[in-house]
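Quick look at the format.
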Amino acid sequence: MSAGLSLEKYFSFQESSEKVPTMTVSELERLQQENEKLLETLEVNRVVSSSLNLEVVLGTLMEKAKVLLEAEASSLMLVDDEAQELYFHTVRGEKSDAVRKIRLKMGEGIAGWVAKEGKPVLVPDCSQDPRFYKRADQLTQFVTRSMMCVPLRARKRIIGTVQVLNKTDNRQFDE
């Protein structure tokens, strides 16, 4: 009787495994990329929950944003309430040191607009956006092609912005 059940289970498994569709190479690659992104997200969660050092947490978040979104640079700007300006607090990417010197008035540039309006933006071609602050590229010798920028809120108040610049493969941000 147990041999009969084993054979029955075997044939049942065979039938069900034949019904499972085979995956294409591109589907497997996509799943692998999604898995890698999930692992990166878990790493962010681990760092955020294990560190008491805000600088370490913010640096890790910006680095992981850059990696996960396949971007050339990422940054976190904070609002200086007294001066009504944004300043670069945490920067990851090629021109980090030069970028830290730049300050934007509220409403100035894409990040300033996001901070003032409280709305996220996806800019596929910065050179065609009238809000784009060209002076930042001139000062840093960085070429900003595309940008994602979101407001950073605390207790219903905008305290800054997070921006990610330029996909590493020259594609545009679309998510």
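Next, a different chain entirely:
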Amino acid sequence: MMKVLIVGCGAVGQVYGLALQKAGVTVGFLDQSAVVKKLIQAQEQRGLLLFQVSHKHRNDPIVYRLKDYRVIADAVESQHFEPDQIWFTTPSQVYYSDWFHDFLRQVPSKRVVCFSPEGSRPEFLTEGMGDRVVFGGTTFMAWQGDLEGDGARSEGVNFWRPPLAIPLEGTRESCREVANLLKQAGFRITFGKPGSHSQASATAVLTAFVAGLELSGWSLRTYRKSPWLRCAAGAGRESVIGQLPRAGAFTRALLSSPVLSACFFLAALLLPLLFPFDLERYLKFHYTKTREQTVILLNVFMKDSIDCGVPVTNVQSLVKSLLAAG
């Protein structure tokens, strides 16, 4: 039986764990000591509770229990687990740390899957990794808590799996192995070209949008009328051009500040209609929790744009204001 070690047992990690276990995979979870204690306690209480919401099951989500998983406390126990694959469902800051590279040197596995929002970056890869690492994007939404009573459950992880494919980037052979496993777990897959910056570009736009929303008080209605919308749209343009320095005239026209401002306005107006939960509350909950990651991503994209000679006035304004707001 295949073994997958999931590093990070937050909401996203638990959803992947549930899907993999249903596909017949032996799942191990590695996390910090406080989370390890909670995982052990959950095992003693019949497992982790997960609730799948959808448009059909908005107020009565489908209930799952994730149990019979292995709890891993450190690198030594990870070695003894002998994973075939290691999946990282951690915030961005982990990938920039020395711990990340040290851990991969200590714990052998055939494949490593990094669900990093910014996709593949040179600083994530060290000499000797070869085609061991695959980068993927998470296309479902998961959170812990009830979003202030909006139909979700407070006693476990809530998640929504829209019919979106998970993008994978890496060598053909490594992606094929990971894709086969994801398909067995019920996910659709799409393959990105090596060196593609599509995932980073999408994250750059989303990060700018969310930063502007926070500076507008987490209100989508206020955001539509706020000067932060135009600033965020400009920041999105600056960040994406840094990822796509060779973009053609048509792409650059689509990324113009007026076009992106209109897109941001329409997104703030229409997106809440497409989700089976309160999107505004979700965005506030999730991105308040991952605020450090938001600032890191803005700085990463800003550096890339500066290296490409792209002015970054709007990105700088977002970062400065977020830091000032604490």
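The two ends are 47 Å apart (CA to CA).

See the schema section for token definitions.
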